[in-house]
Design a protein that fits this description.
Elements (H helix, E strand, L loop, with lengths): L4 E6 L2 H13 L7 E6 L13 E4 L5 H4 L9 E3 L2 E2 L6 H4 L6 E5 L3 H13 L5 E5 L12 E4 L12 E4 L4 E2 L1 H10 L4 H42 L3 E5 L5 E4 L1 H6 L12 H4 L2 H9 L5 E6 L2 E12 L2 E11 H17 L16 H14 L5 E4 L6 H10 L8 E5 L5 H9 E2 L12 E2 L1 H4 L4 E5 L6 H13 L1 E2 L8 E2 L3 E6 L3 H6 L5 H7 L2 E4 L9 H17 L5 E2 L1 H9 L5 H15 L3 E2 L24 H11 L2 H14 L5 H10 L6 H13 L3 E3 L6 E3 L1 H10 L1
This protein binds adenosine-5'-triphosphate.
The site of adenosine-5'-triphosphate has 17 residues, from helix 12 and helix 20.
């Protein structure tokens, strides 16, 4: 039997191509001879005699008439979008604003209507030549084959291809050729086949989405915060086991349910009132919770909000564990501004300045006499800064021997020198990464160390001893000294460029004699603290004794005051009188405070070896022993110089303090001298 011929005539090439492709997809080549022409081809490609003409729009009929036989039948095709191309569109979140771009207003509106018929719920805005504006929040465009008309500012273009012949038109074509019911069935099955294809694709997608959702569920369940995601229609979209446990909803299915009726009423009230993007503390069921509420934004559109919540007690535990871990490494700042005692105007002023400076990340230089509280203040600054959860690392330049200092500060690589630990060593700068490094007694740093410090402060990177890689470090520097750095710079003892790097935000801490108003309060605080430690009743000062305290010059500042209270706690019953005060007495000797445990001489010896001090300690003890009577620090420094050993007063004070702690020395206050204890003499002969 001769096959029927159908000829599609369209205005442009790509519409024709899309229609012919669709004929292949639907298997229409088995039913008909299918031909296609654009209007411009009609002049040189004639149409077969008995062909049925199908035009893509009424508008082109007058233009094609001259090329057609008189009695030929014309069908105006109804066109619809090609289902096989809609998958990408289904991935756009429901309700989102989308630009529908076509080559004319009517065709744009028609395409929108067709898409809507498919049940795709997007908020379409038509766009066609001649239009210049569209809602600026739109980022996605859908177009049936007119991608070239999409405005360039749109991020994503989904081309669903040119529209094809709809089902009703195919029936009209079949009817024209008087096809029977069996043929129609074939047509329907071809159509269904193409729909099944897209359904299968979709079901694959759904399967993938389900898998992803299960994955997501497993991940969200592992989060230790309670999680609730609520969409813009107040439906619960995501939750986790922790949230269900806190809300007593275990075993209940609340996903896709209305939040207002599924969540306990008071909790629901709380989450509705929460501000966005801000940590908030709220009570629920007499427990304190930390909440955070965040908008869920996808491609600029709001899809509801996410709530994360956790019991404050759990956060405190975390903090506690963290602090314990850090403090086992010795990297924690214990003190905060509330641990600083004082009421004087000078105290209020310098603590106020320091508190403000804490907020910035700039270098701070603390200047003040010994014992004025520089280290305490450095810790308080760290704890008031944004870095408070990160390490606080202190380095005392008077306390570490020169030979160890470089590797302590910068670390070393494995094999850097004989005796270097396997795996190398992480230096203090690296340990302080993200936190604060406190450079105490910076005036005591040697020229070599000053040089290397300058490089770290300039470059914010370090190189380990024996290493060749630079390691970036993010640190906040707080430095302190009781020496006059200005004078040291003048005398060429301190690098001017390092001084300027350190002296960014200077804080001057006044001596105790210049803030006498603080003395009674400090006395009170130390009595409370020390008596509590010793489990003894508090004592008090007579008016005369307190007057003496106010008149005294306090060369050792608050440290000295604390030591005096410590001493008094051992010798005073109830009330302190002027005779108790050591600085009033002629002999000026502290009585020994009982209760210390002796250390094994070897252990003491090893501890000094470990600090790199043993040689210096030996010299100091020898010098004091040879003097036969109590000697002051200046005497020791002078004697050490004669044997070629240069030592600053600060360094000597620190070492003598250690010797005193180990009960090897009896160190007097101020200008009182120091003598060896019997244990000190024993130790000296042991190390000799
Ligand atoms: N405002 C204060 N309130 C309570 N205690 C304080 C205060 N200032 C200092 N102290 C105490 O005084 C002692 C000395 O303080 P700190 O070690 O911080 O002084 P410093 O200036 O760093 O001394 P140095 O220069 O000798 O190293 C510490 O025991 C500290 O706890």
């Amino acid at each position: 039997m001769e096959r029927n011929t159908i000829t599609f005539i369209t205005l442009n090439d790509h519409t024709l191509q899309a229609i012919i492709d669709n004929c292949y997809e639907l298997g229409m080549m088995e039913e008909f001879n299918v031909e296609g022409r654009t209007i411009s081809q009609l002049a040189y490609l004639p149409i077969a005699d008995r062909s049925l003409i199908i035009v893509s729009g009424e508008i082109i009929i007058p233009a094609i008439k001259p090329y057609l036989h008189e009695n030929c039948k014309i069908i105006v095709a109804q066109r619809t979008i090609n289902y096989t191309n809609i998958r990408e569109m289904l991935e756009i979140p429901r309700g989102m604003k989308v630009l529908l771009v076509n080559d004319g207003r009517e065709r744009a509106l028609d395409t929108i209507a067709r898409i809507k018929e498919l049940g795709i719920e997007l908020d379409f805005h038509p766009f066609y030549p001649g239009q210049t504006t569209y809602p600026q929040e739109i980022t996605i465009a859908v177009t049936p084959g007119e991608a070239k008309l999409v405005p360039p500012t749109i991020h994503k273009v989904i081309d669903i291809g040119s529209r094809v012949i709809d089902f009703a038109t195919w029936i009209e074509i079949f009817d024209h050729f008087k096809y029977g019911i069996l043929d129609l069935r074939r047509l329907i099955s071809r159509y269904v086949h193409s729909v099944v294809y897209i359904t299968k694709e979709l079901s694959d997608e759904i399967q993938k989405a389900n898998l992803l959702r299960n994955h997501l569920g497993a991940i969200v369940d592992r989060i230790e915060d309670g999680v609730l995601a609520i969409d813009e229609e107040d439906k619960i979209r995501i939750t986790n086991q922790k949230a269900l446990e806190i809300l007593h909803l275990q075993g209940r299915k609340i996903i896709h349910q209305q939040a207002e009726i599924s969540i306990p009423a008071h909790f629901y009230q709380i989450i509705c009132q929460l501000p966005y993007e801000k940590e908030e503390v709220m009570n629920w069921e007499s427990q304190t919770f930390f909440f955070r509420k965040t908008n869920i934004l996808i491609d600029g559109r709001n899809f509801g909000y996410l709530i994360l919540f956790r019991r404050a007690s759990e956060i405190n535990k975390l903090e506690h564990d963290y602090r314990r871990k850090q403090s086992s490494k010795g990297l924690v700042a214990k003190y905060t501004f509330s641990d600083l005692t004082g009421i004087s105007a000078a105290f209020t002023k310098f603590t106020g300045i320091a508190r403000n400076m804490a907020r910035s990340s700039s270098t701070i230089l603390l200047l003040g006499e010994t014992g004025t509280g520089k280290e305490l203040l450095a810790q308080a600054i760290h704890n008031a800064s944004a870095r408070r959860w990160e390490p606080f690392v202190g380095v005392n330049f008077a306390a570490i021997s020169e030979s160890l200092l470089e590797s302590e500060l910068f670390g070393y690589e494995e094999g850097a020198f004989t005796g270097a630990k396997k795996g190398g060593h992480i230096g203090l700068f690296e340990q302080a990464h993200k936190g604060t490094i406190f450079l105490d007694e910076i005036g005591d740093a040697s020229a070599v160390i000053q040089n290397r410090l300058l490089r770290v402060l300039q470059e914010r990177e370090i190189m380990k001893v024996g290493g060749n890689r630079v390691i970036p470090v993010d640190i906040r520097v707080v430095a302190a000294t009781n020496r006059n750095l200005d004078d040291m710079v003048q005398a060429g003892l301190f690098r001017a460029d390092l001084y300027y790097r350190l002296n960014v935000l200077p804080v001057y801490i006044p001596a105790l004699r210049d803030r006498k108003d603080d003395i009674p309060l400090l006395v009170q605080e130390f009595i409370k603290k020390i008596c509590n430690e010793l489990k003894r009743p508090n004592f008090r000062f007579s008016r005369e004794a307190m007057d003496n305290m106010l008149d005294y010059r306090w060369p050792g500042n608050i440290r000295e005051l604390e030591n005096i209270i410590q001493y008094l706690a051992h010798v005073v019953e109830d009330i302190v009188v002027p005779e108790h005060l050591v600085f009033n007495r002629q002999d000026k000797v502290y009585q020994e405070i009982p209760g210390s445990k002796g250390l094994e001489l070897e252990a003491v010896y090893q501890s000094y070896v470990g600090k790199g001090f043993i040689q210096e300690v030996k010299l100091i003890l020898q010098t004091i022993q040879q003097a036969k009577s109590a000697v002051g620090r200046n005497y020791v420094i002078g004697q050490l110089k004669t044997v070629g050993w240069d030592m600053t007063e600060q360094k000597l004070r620190y070492r003598m303090q250690l010797l005193k702690q180990d009960k090897l020395l009896e160190v007097g206050r101020g200008r009182q001298g120091s003598t060896l204890t019997p244990k000190g003499a024993e130790f000296l002969s042991y190390i000799k």
